[in-house]
Amino acid sequence: MTSEGAHTFTKYGWLVCLWVLTASFQYGYHTSALNQLQAVLTCKVADATAPTYFGLPTCIPMSDATFSVVTSMYTMGGFFGSLSANIVMDRYGRKGASRLSAVLTAAGSTVFGLSSSVGPLILGRFLVGLAAGLGICLCPIYLSEIAPAKIKGNLGVLTQLAIVVGIMVTQGMGFGLATPRQWRLVLFISSGISIFQYFIGPFVVESPSYLNRKGLVDQEKLAIRRLWGEFHDVSRTDLEEQDSEEPLLPDSDNTTESVSTDRQPALTIPRLFASTELRRPLLTIIAAMTSQQISGINAVLYYSNDILSKSLPELAPYVSLAITIVNFFMTFPPIFLIERVGRKQLIQLSVAGALLSHLAVGYGLNSGFVTLSSIAITTFVMSFAFGLGPIPFVIIPEVAPPHAVSAISSVGLSLNWSSNFVIGLIFLPLRNFLANGDPMKEGRVFYLFAAALLCSTLWFSKLYRG
Question: Where does 312-404 have alpha helices with state H?
């Protein structure tokens, strides 16, 4: 590799990055979309003067239980999308999987936006979840495989940043479009973005690593030249450098393996579980994804409105948006720090901040210090944003060899979706059980989250060499 190249992208390379990140943006977009639309969608806020608008009902009556089912379809779709992502990515390529994700998002958003009953809502939400599960698997891999070696880590953080931007956009849109006549626009805007992404697809290059593994050397050289510049030596140096940085592969015969792994056939999930040499990379990603969800980030965000509105009642509608903005700004530091501080050190600092924040939230709730709980929730989100949020996505393509990265990503992200679903399901019942009906003991559940996060992080630190 020449000294002139492989340090950054061409302008075209950065545009490809933005195209790839659309999948992560949509993941965040739909994670937050229904939270903003719940009241108008379920007829709690209705327009009695206009029960229909352009031939569609302005709301769809449903109970809280029914709305929960509609909402949970996103997680269910995400689980199956992630579980099948390795098959899709290895059969159709990273670009083909991205375009399929765009089709599913467009279809699901359109079905949801045109719904007049609960059934289509469920179908649309499931399709969008399916797309999100596929997209969140392929985005970190695609970015890593098109990135020059010097900025792989920096670029990997953009996955989390795109998710946060998606959440922030829908929360901001909720202030203007969460009305009986306009809520469907939130879904149609998402559909329009995905349709645009799909038709831009033919102008986007496939991952050089994927092309190399398929033996398409000429296409690989062309892709590298367009991504990294005319002066970049299109030898395999950059991809070999990626292989040499894998910290979890056996040390023996490392040189031979680094040459051969690119051309090995893609690993299936059953073969992944049967492989002893890939057990450590697999367990590392499982531990990272478990730590991310067991931190209680989604539970904290869910509970934050209730806590913060007690101390800031007049600003309650703006609380979620403010926390998301904090999350957004705190996702920037790891972009610049990840290569200087290191992955393992960043996640350890992040966990330390999250643990202290959990303890402070719990103590504040149990003691009636609402202001302390409010501050601690903010510091928790800040701590999560610069380590626990982005790092698990960054390390997926770094700890796994190219032929196994799709399978390991599928398993890790499927577990992430499952953990998300279970924690969301049990959080409130668990809080009430531990509090035993006493509002001054509701903070106990955060002590439990702190203990679980500490255990999962110790497990991850033992597995991951950094």
Answer: 316-330, 333-341, 343-367, 370-383, 391-399
